[in-house]
């Protein structure tokens, strides 16, 4: 579990080091429902410095802060830090191979304020589209769980934003069909 306090602290450290990023993973949902438990890891789309061109930067950043440095399932950097006695995994991504996030999602990311820290995050609708687009069985199961979370917390999602995001990703018909089957669309 990552607490809100530890989440803010680790992301503040990244920002202080000049890392520019957008939150893209499950944390998007957890922040929107105002959960104090922000999950097991934090997925970030790194804008700069590039994780592909400047991987040494992230290794040095990890060493300097006595954090562990490893790799995600995609071979991109994973930083494991202990903040306030909590282990936090930061999974860092860029568009690589089959991992794709449209530039428009990043360029137009919403800005949120979490305890005085200004952060960029994709929208819930964009997150849902990305999960549907991946098509992995575990992502479809996650979408089922998230629908329950959204219903319980009375979070409103906008169908028009889902359709727009699906168009930007591509394979619009497949994405929208999956989301309709799961109950996200009428």
TrEMBL record:
<keyword id="KW-0808">Transferase</keyword>
<dbReference type="Pfam" id="PF09970">
    <property type="entry name" value="DUF2204"/>
</dbReference>
<dbReference type="InterPro" id="IPR043519">
    <property type="entry name" value="NT_sf"/>
</dbReference>
<dbReference type="GO" id="GO:0016740">
    <property type="term" value="F:transferase activity"/>
</dbReference>
<dbReference type="InterPro" id="IPR018700">
    <property type="entry name" value="DUF2204"/>
</dbReference>
<protein>
    <submittedName>
        <fullName>Putative nucleotidyltransferase</fullName>
    </submittedName>
</protein>
